[in-house]
Amino acid sequence: MQLNCPMPKFDFDVITLGHGSGGLLTHKLLESGVFDLFKNDLLDQQHDGASFSLSGDVSFSTDSYVVTPIFFPGGNIGDLAVNGTINDLAMCGAKAKYLSLSFILEEGLTMEEFWTILVSIKEAANKADVKIVTGDTKVVEKGKGDKVFINTSGIGIMHPKAKIHHNNIQTGDKIIISGQLANHGITIMSLRKGLEFETTIQSDTAALHDTVMQLLDKFGDSIRFLRDPTRGGPASVLNEIAGLTRLGYQLHQSALPIDPQVEGACEMLGLDPLYIANEGVFLAIVKADVADEFLSALQQDSNGIHAAIIGEVTNTNTGKVILNSSIGGQRVVGFLPGEQLPRIC
Amino acid sequence: MKFLSEYRDPELARQYFEEIRRVTTKPWTLMEICGGQTHSLVRNGILDLLPDKITMVHGPGCPVCVTSISVIDEAIHLAQKENVILCSFGDMLRVPGSSKSLLEVKSAGADVRILYSPLEAVQLAQQSPEKEVVFFAVGFETTAPANALSVIQADKLGVTNYSILASHVLVPPAMEALLSDPENKIDGFLAAGHVCTIMGMEEYYPIAEKYKTPIVVTGFEPLDLLQGILMTVMQLEKGEYKVENQYARSVQREGNRLAKDSIGKVFTIDDRQWRGIGSIPQSGYEVNERYKKYNARLKFDLNIPLAEENKACISGDIMKGLKKPVQCPNFGTLCKPEHPLGAPMVSSEGACAAYYHYSDKNN
User: What homologous superfamily is domain A17-158 in, according to CATH?
Assistant: First the structure.
């Protein structure tokens, strides 16, 4: 869905320090842009915060977004910031309901860029059926930021059947990935200065909560663990839980779903796709006897077309992640030392 | 993926393992020269599947690992100069010099940039006329042509604020240094496919002959390595010592004429200090007389005192094939990728890094 939101007439072509002053310019910017665009009953109260009542168990999560470049094939920092927090909540087993939205803008960001970001935030929120209910805008001097940084926090309602915790993982459980690996990271990398190479790969940024809620309806506590492998990729997620659970996590190289272009880029740059960031992919650990059914249900969903069972939990090699190479050898997949590529999300 | 999956075929790999097992009757020690080969062997789990009689030792072919501590000190000295932009391949940043690494001086405010090609550094020099742009030209024969081209390009464009800090090292003199070491245990070599793609195979015939050691030019994919190992073992079992080419899809006997020409235009062969190994005569490239105004050492009148290597690091023994990374008392304890004692633990081609990341012998 493409929103038809013509850019309102702003007094300036670019963001200036005055837009963060709290004074007239801030007021005008919010009045003519933000409040109209995100209009909803809670935001319209125009308080310092949003007040509402919720019943039952909720999840609460926050994340900051500093990706550079801010526009990339498949999305921009705006929809990334909405989907990212929605997904963090979904991984807890919650369906996002309300989001906060805070900007740190760098002086000189064009109004056109800012508007494009605002519109895609609105589109992503509409699509995911979440409301932006409170927010903040600050402006820093030129050179003190990088165009725009966004923070979103979110509150979501827990699915009644969700029992997602690494403590529930057991030997024999299957490791499932919901989509192709490394698309987001390689997309960003292909745009970075000095690294420009041509691909048709797009970022996979997407909200995953509807997919996850449907799976929870069907499989309940057979879903032991969920995590979106963003920075550091699935290798980092699995190492983290291997350390916590003291179980072994075995992967099969030949089962990993990877787009040939992404695989080629990784070969060329000497990167391991297991460590590269994803934005619309989740890793699930599920009870073995529902794994096949879980997989086929996931593959019916537009977020899970490329889903695959990529490994299993073992009681050997405890505390470690082991990859069975396609030629029959084995290796340890360890933690990544340092950064593979900074500012990816 | 086309041109990759063919060289990772599990059934063919199984057949190679079986064949290697069948022909091996005596214990042999083989050295793969290149760090890229070391990583492929470890990452694909090949080492554990080879017969016990075959010992693979890991050669000095990791440019970051063999770059001497003094050269890193030179780069750090340049990076800290007020108007200098120091450009480098990413790998070099975390390698410790005598007191700090480039990454540390970058964090403290030095202008250090990671580039993928030296030609970008020439562009950067054009865009920043008020700055001096220095490219840290590290590597074996493989990266030398591109570094040479950057100098030729800068000269053609009349770019005067560009220079390179050359620290090129050469494979054949290092092989001779290893083979003439009284402690040498190497029976055969897998030569580095990429180096030979540039330089060809001519330099290796006299070495194979003089030291009666088989040399098989080998690629980097699992099947390349398995075939290279099989070819070397077959020669050893028959008592032969020939130079053979496993990596024929990339390597020609005479190498790449154009690349060699550009090296010849810009560089001259010089003695070179190797980290952990010491000085090897005629084992590196330095910018020649004709292009001396692009030599950062002369341009900035560098005179950095020779620094001592960290005595706790046994990288020399590892790169000579005398010890394995896990035999180092500091492996995985005092020395880890996040706080390395020596370069082999940080470089993406370093043997210690390969063992640390991919094998379970690090706990």
Answer: PurM-like, N-terminal domain (3.30.1330.10)
Contact with chain B for residue A339, Cβ under 8 A? no
Helices within A220-251 (DSSP H only) = 233-245
- Section B344-348 average pLDDT: 82
| Contact status of A268 with chain B (Cβ, < 8 Å) | no
Among the partner-chain residues A264, A322, A326, the one whose CB lies closest to the CB of B10 is A326
* B327 and B281 within one domain: no
Q: Is the ipTM of this complex over 0.85?
A: no
Q: What is the pLDDT of residue A344?
A: 64
Q: Where are the alpha helices (DSSP H) in A52-107?
A: 77-92
Among chain B residues, CA nearest to A196: B116
B326 — phi, psi (to 5°)? -70, -10
Condensed to tens digits (0 to 9), the pLDDT of residues B153-189 reads 999 999 999 999 999 999 999 999 999 999 999 999 9
By DSSP bridging, strand B267-274 and strand B243-245 are: unpaired
Question: Does one domain contain both B219 and B342?
Answer: no
Whether residue B219 sits in one domain with residue B90: yes
Q: Which CATH superfamily is domain A166-332 in?
A: PurM-like C-terminal domain (3.90.650.10)
Residue A187's contacts (CB-CB under 8 Å, 6 or more residues apart) are A72, A73, A74, A199, A201, A202, A203
* Cβ contact, residue pair A325, B42, below 8 Å: no
Q: Which of A194, A263, A329 lies at the smallest CB-CB distance from B116?
A: A194
3-class state of residue A9 by DSSP: coil
Domain residue ranges of chain A, discontinuous segments joined by +: 17-158, 166-332
Condensed to tens digits (0 to 9), the pLDDT of residues B39-78 reads: 899 989 999 999 999 999 999 888 888 888 899 999 999 9
Query: Are residues B186 and B225 both part of a single domain?
Result: yes
> Distance from CA of residue A175 to its chain's centroid?
19
Q: Which domain holds residue B234?
A: 29-313
- H or E element that contains B86: strand B84-88
Based on the structure, what is the number of domains in chain B?
A: 2
Q: Does A267 touch chain B (CB under 8 A)?
A: yes
Structural domain includes residue B153: yes
If you measure CA to CA, which chain B residue comes closest to A318? Answer: B360
Query: What is the reported pTM?
Result: 0.84
Residue B12's closest chain A neighbor by CA?
A: A327
Say which of A194, A195, A325 has its CB closest to residue B45.
A325
By CA distance, what is A326's nearest residue in B? B10
Q: Does A196 touch chain B (CB under 8 A)?
A: no
Helix (H) or strand (E) holding A157: strand A148-158
